[in-house]
Amino acid sequence: MALAEVAARLLDTLAPETVLIGGVCGALYGVERFTRDVDLAATFDASDIMKRLQDAGILAEIRRSSESDELSWVVHGELDGIEFQVLPASETGISIDSSEVKAGLRVADIQSFITSKCIAGGQQDMHDVAALWLMHPELTSFCREKATAHGCLEKLQGWLDDRRLQQRYSAQSG
Amino acid sequence: MPGFLPKPAVELTLRRVFLLPFSQTTINMAYMTKMTRRKAELLAEIEKSPALSIYQLANQCGRNYRRVFDHVKQLSEAGLVNIRSDIRNGRQVSMVESIYHQRLQRLDDMFSFKAGIDGAR
Q1: pLDDT tens digit sequence for A52-66
Q2: Is residue B95 part of a domain?
Q3: Of A50, A123, A164, B101, which has the fewest CB atoms closer than 10 Å, so is most exposed?
Q4: How many domains does the structure of chain B reveal?
């Protein structure tokens, strides 16, 4: 288990203030999509993250930005040939307090995960939100509210109208 | 969560685990297990843990091995967990996996497949 093992090792190194987000988290919630990296969200500072990673012998670097539409920092690194990023939880809509544990991995709760995807707002992110919306009809109003708040409802609607996505994920189909 | 698992819940689980369309998830419910509180607790423990042997699972829950074995078998028959044979220290053990382990495994399979293609290029 390449990605899962790297995710587990990073979570151990950065415990307990870190949770999985991104493709691995999405996969645990049932979203079927290829991913080649591991994304995490942390509540503590980038320099503390760097120190913990260095102590564990993991190579990484901080990339800071002062642009208003970018995250203030991202820690990029590589472990066992797999790239990873640690992002600031406060800027990505992730609440660490309500995290869940699935298959031994600490993941963002589904609402935080959807919020982070709506903040990111890319096509891949909207695919993930649409899949979760279709799998969890009870989250419809939550997804719509978050997508509206972050200006990505139109993009999300495009994915919700996708027939293949509906066939794969919709609890109502068949 | 006492009572019987409703059929739609089992169909949804099967569909999510095996990615089957609904037309292929019609199953005989005659063997459907009764979901007692103990089994629901065991399922929750399996879902949040890494893959464990039944022996490790019984230890972790502080419960009798035989009872845990029986409950895991019933959960497996209901399609809620998967039992996989593995060799540990030269001995065959039964590893218990939840839907989440299977999802992670599929993700890693996709990753390995793509890495293989990229390597061949």
Answers
A1: 999 999 999 999 998
A2: yes
A3: A164
A4: 1
Residue B96 sits in which domain range?
7-120
Cα separation, A169 vs A45, in Å, equals: 37
* Stated pTM of the model: 0.82
Q: What residues have CB less than 8 Å from A120, skipping those under 6 apart? A: A92
Does the model's ipTM exceed the 0.90 cut?
no
Question: How long a stretch of residues is chain B?
Answer: 121
**Per-residue three-class SS string for A71-137:** CCEEEEEEECCEEEEEEEHHHHCCCHHHCEEECCEEECCHHHHHHHHHHHCCHHHHHHHHHHHHHCH
| A103/B51 CB distance under 8 A | yes
Tokens 């992730």, residue located: A94
Interface A-B, measured as beta-carbon pairs within 8 A, has a size of: 62
Check CB contact under 8 Å for A32 and B98: no
Length of chain A: 174
| Per-domain boundaries in chain A | 2-169
